[in-house]
Amino acid sequence: MHYLQREFAERTKSGGTVLGLLQSSALDGLWYLDLEDRAQEWRNNQFWRALGYDPAVLPLLPTGPGLTNADDQAESTRRIDAHLADPGTPYDQVLRYRHQDGRTVHLRRRGAVLRDDKGNATRMLGTHTDVTHERETEALLKSSQQAARIGTWSVDLRGGSIHWDEMTKEIHQVSADFVPQLSEAMNFYKAGTSRETIARLFDRAVREGESFDTELQLVTAEGNDIWVRSIGQPEMKDGECIRVHGIFQDINLRRREEERVINYSILDAKSKEMEQFAYIASHDLREPLLTIEGFLEVIREDFAETLPVEVMSYMRTITGATKRMDELIKGLLDYSRLSAIKQLQEVNLKELFEIVMTDLNSAMSGVNIEFSYTDLPLVMGYPLELKVLFQNLVGNAIKYRRVDERLMISATCADTELGWQINIKDNGIGIAQKDLTTIFKLYRQLHGKGKYTGNGIGLANCMKIVELHGGDIWVESELGQGSTFHFTILTREELEEG
Ligand code: ADP
């Protein structure tokens, strides 16, 4: 034995300064346990201070149950027994204690058995170290890793083993006891670019010591296709790579959101292009049509008397066809104009309905119409488009009226969860169940040419206008029983929110 060690032992035995020093400053506490009556344990002041108690009022200090976590206490008994059975097994454990203010304090308890003259294990002496801060930091790290879905992995190149932590296993959707093999781990990456990339990067990390950080696609054990970020860091020893370890993160949500935004902007650009095309095409188409109409007029005026009757009848058909074409082109122009950038304004739907009603009523002076309407709301919207919406709905109600009954058109509104709901009701010819959704499609008409004028664009425009205002449009009807067209429109707050 070293003379200093011997001297230290002697001094400790004699008590005094050495023992005092040990008691007051050794780590975060000392403990001394009676193995013959394990309820008896002495702890020094440091221990009590770590739990927030004042050692000056020592007799009042709590002992026994409640101070320590019951599970940790039971584990402690098991470990002490293991140490007693084999002193080669050190006693080393982190126990949870209750601080005076109620929070949990983590103390690392290490100790060793002390024997009496006959060699019987009678006492244990040990130390406490407060590891609360480390434990809390670990827990915080773990919960942030959980939230960010970050796991860890390592490949030991000498032993050939792989380690995946809990989160890495969770991302792969394998069970907690899954033991990965290297080739198997690689095969989780999606065949093709992803698998080739990870193989190349891993190989370069091992051979050239180069780290990597990449985003790849993975197919989980349950067959889900997800995006992951894989970061790898080689560990070199004597110029040779002995281990590659890294971070593994589930970035599927972020990638899917990015893809959605990209797809949306492509779609948006495409539909803008289409609208631009429709605008130019319909604008340019009207010019030659005007020329045809002009010359038809000239022929009618100048040659009416000299032309055979059949030719005049063909001329009427041509005039009718050019008129229909003109209507069609105008409709297309309206359709493309609806998408131009506009300014949102406060619109009084009641006033708008009154204007449309008056206009259409005077245009249809021969038709006896009974209009009724309730207080329609003030909304945020595009006035011109909302006017076109009312014109189309009320116009259709007039067009598809029943000849045997007085036409009644009403406009009502209700405040619903989806915003304002406006209902335009007529007592006209009605629509069959099977056509209730298709009539909103472009060029969809339920009647052959001749009976009703029109081009099948009106309701497609209505749909576009309602969607522009963040709403929905639908119809309830039965053949011969009239129709009610409903549309919703967001309130000002809802529209501003998003
Ligand atoms: P159109 O120019 O033919 O009126 P719309 O797109 O406005 O085109 O309407 C599509 C079809 O829906 C119409 O052809 C008609 O058959 C039917 N429809 C629209 N509104 C009504 C209504 N109020 N009552 C009965 N049928 C209607």
From TrEMBL:
Catalytic activity: ATP + protein L-histidine = ADP + protein N-phospho-L-histidine
Pfam families in alphabetical order: HATPase_c (PF02518), HisKA (PF00512), PAS_3 (PF08447), PAS_9 (PF13426)
Domain annotation PAC: ranges: 91-143, 212-263
SMART domains (UniProt xref): HATPase_c, HisKA, PAC
PROSITE patterns: HIS_KIN, PAC
InterPro entries for the chain: HATPase_C_sf (IPR036890), HATPase_dom (IPR003594), His_kinase_dom (IPR005467), HisK_dim/P_dom (IPR003661), HisK_dim/P_sf (IPR036097), PAC (IPR001610), PAS (IPR000014), PAS-assoc_C (IPR000700)
Enzyme Commission no: 2.7.13.3
Gene3D superfamilies: 1.10.287.130, Histidine kinase-like ATPase, C-terminal domain, PAS domain
Keywords: Kinase, Phosphoprotein, Transferase
Top-level taxonomic group: Bacteria
Residue ranges annotated for the Histidine kinase domain, each copy included: 280-493
Enzyme class: transferase
UniProt cross-references to PANTHER family, sorted A to Z: PAC DOMAIN-CONTAINING PROTEIN, PHYTOCHROME-LIKE PROTEIN CPH1
Protein name: histidine kinase
Source species taxonomy: Bacteria, Pseudomonadati, Bacteroidota, Saprospiria, Saprospirales
